Structures are given as C-alpha cells and as structure tokens.
Task: inverse folding
C-alpha cells in the first residue's frame, strides 16, 4: 500500500495550517511537523513524524550512521532524508537502508526521473522509499517511475486542493462529486455557435462523461459518444461538450472554460454515481454547429447549458441517458450544483455570484 505523508512548514499561516491538518487527518499516513506544531497535529489523531520532540517517527534531516543505529536499538521507527544531486548521493540511500532505516525520503531537486529510477532499481523491496514532491503531477511521476515507483510520497504544500488531488493519485481513491436529478423546464434552439469536442486519452463507458454548464455553480453530465446508432461509429474517447464559453470541471476542485482546453491538459471523467477519474486531453476540436439551450431546475435553483443540437449528444440520467433531441419539459437529467462562485476556476463558497 502506497503511503502519503505531508510536511508542514512552520512558516505557513495558522489559518492555512489548520485547514491542512484537518484534511491531512483524513488522507495522510503521517505528518512531518516542527516541534511547535506537534501538539496541534497530535490533537487530530495523526501519526507524527518529526526531527525532535514527542513523535511516532524520528526524522533525520541529515544522514547520521550513529544516530540511526542508536534509534533502532531503542526500537524507534526511523526515516532518513537524503537530497540526491550527484551519483554519490545515491550511495547514502543504500547505506541508510543497510542500517535498517524504516523509511528513506528522497529529494531530487535537479534531475527528477533518472536518479529515482536508479534508487528504485537498487532498493525496491528493501525499505520504504518515499519521494519528496510539491505537486500532484510530480507525485504521479514518482509513483510510476521504472513501473515499480516509489513506495509513497512526502508532499510539501500549503494548498488543501493540491493535497486532495495528490491523495487521489496515491491512494487510488475515486473522489466523488455530488450529482442530483434536475427537471428540464425549457428548451430553445439558438442558432450556430463554436462547439467544442473534447477527445480524451481514455475510453469511457455508458454513464460516463464530463461536467459542463453555463454556470460554474450548475454543471450537466454530458455522456461520451458511446451510444451505438445506425449512422455514425461510436467514439468512446470523445465528449461533444458544447460551445466555447461553457465551464467544465477539469479537476476535483477547479473549473475551466472549454475555450482554454488543449492537448495535454487535465480533464475529469465523471460517472452517474459521481465517481471521478483523471484523464488527459488528446485534442480539442472546434466546429460551428446549430445549438440548443437547455434549462433545468433543482430545488428552486435554475441551471443552464448549451449543446450541439444533434442526436448523438446525450445527457446522463439516473437510469441511462437521453439524446438532447428527445428531451422534453419534465424530463430529469443529472447535474452537479454548488453554492458560491469561482475565482479563476477555484471555488469560493462565500462569494455571491449571479449567473444568468
């Protein structure tokens, strides 16, 4: 089982630190803290790793053979930090493992891949190797290096969103978004517009697609082109998403405009149960097509989306999916509704935003 640790810098403002600690308690196997933060971390029931004080795991910031031997004789759990800049630094990792260190935390500040490949090849199965990273993308790379990957991640961040995204990668837990049925209240043909097809580097199944909408607070689940029909082949990698100004949920905590998407960007695939999985965009295709405005209502809140007016575009429902050409008032489709607004795609729940 891959482990996720987080290292809290003592200089992080207290309000950010409190939020990180609360989230870390839910997803992290251990928290590296300074002496001043041990008590607060202990209150949330976390496993504490520190270089001093009352901790569960002793962290050596610099490799010290005598110190490792002494701590192991006392039955302590030991983690040794090693910064790998040169080939010789890889040998320090080997020495730490030979002394029965429980963990070796490797930081590769220059070359990130090749040194880690060398270390994984030499040490796999002999010790728990943790890679120090600052973002979810680097965590994914470290866990896939040489196919075997590191045994876990030490994340250095002050952002809760980064922690959540990294946890999804390390723990391989499908994060969920809340979906609910909304009733169609209006349908209107609105003429030609620039429509975006999002081609992912993945294959989707019935009930899977992406969340898009006119309002960031109300997104519709548009199904991938997986429904068989007598006129065109299925394209399970594609979602015919809608016009360029629509919002799309690109990660668990961030929206973007469809106009911003390009090959290599991240996108979030969602199924009718709200389970998510990250994917990458292979290409984005924009063409001019007739459009259809769809309005739906859920508990008094009205949300809207625009789609290409064609039979192959299907909205996901609780039981299956329905072509937008077959939709009628009173039909129900799945939507994701949030309170608040967004600032450059990041949710701000306390902000009041009116979107028509």
Result:
């Amino acid at each position: 089982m891959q482990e996720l640790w987080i290292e809290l810098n003592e200089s992080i403002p207290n309000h950010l630190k409190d939020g990180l600690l609360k989230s870390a308690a839910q997803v992290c196997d251990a928290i590296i803290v300074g002496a001043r933060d041990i008590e607060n971390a202990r209150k949330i029931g976390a496993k504490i790793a520190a270089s001093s004080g009352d901790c569960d795991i002793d962290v050596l910031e610099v490799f010290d053979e005598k110190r490792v031997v002494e701590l192991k004789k006392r039955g302590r759990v030991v983690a040794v930090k090693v910064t790998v800049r040169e080939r010789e630094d890889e040998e320090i990792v080997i020495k730490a493992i030979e002394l029965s260190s429980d963990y070796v935390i490797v930081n590769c500040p220059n070359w990130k891949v090749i040194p880690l490949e060398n270390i994984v090849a030499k040490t796999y199965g002999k010790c728990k190797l943790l890679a120090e990273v600052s973002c979810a993308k680097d965590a994914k790379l470290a866990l896939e290096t040489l196919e075997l990957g590191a045994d876990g991640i030490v994340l250095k961040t002050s952002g809760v969103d980064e922690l959540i995204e990294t946890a999804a990668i390390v723990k391989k837990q499908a994060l969920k978004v809340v979906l609910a049925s909304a009733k169609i209240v209006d349908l209107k043909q609105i003429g030609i517009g620039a429509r975006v097809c999002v081609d992912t580097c993945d294959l989707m199944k019935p009930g899977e697609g992406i969340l898009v909408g006119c309002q960031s607070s109300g997104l519709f689940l548009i199904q991938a082109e997986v429904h068989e029909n007598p006129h065109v082949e299925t394209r399970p990698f594609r979602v015919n998403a809608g016009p360029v100004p629509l919002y799309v949920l690109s990660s668990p905590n961030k929206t973007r405009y469809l106009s911003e998407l390009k090959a290599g960007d991240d996108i979030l695939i969602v199924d009718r149960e709200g389970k998510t999985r990250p994917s990458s965009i292979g290409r984005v295709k924009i063409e001019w097509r007739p459009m259809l405005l769809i309005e739906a209502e859920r508990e008094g809140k009205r949300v809207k989306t625009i789609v290409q007016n064609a039979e192959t575009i299907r909205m996901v429902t609780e039981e299956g999916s329905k072509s937008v050409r077959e939709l009628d008032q009173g039909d129900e489709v799945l939507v994701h509704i949030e309170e608040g607004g967004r600032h450059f795609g990041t949710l701000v729940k306390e902000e009041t935003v009116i979107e028509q």
Notes: DSSP finds seven helices and 22 strands in the chain. Confidence is low (pLDDT under 50) at residues 342-348. The two ends are 47 Å apart (CA to CA).
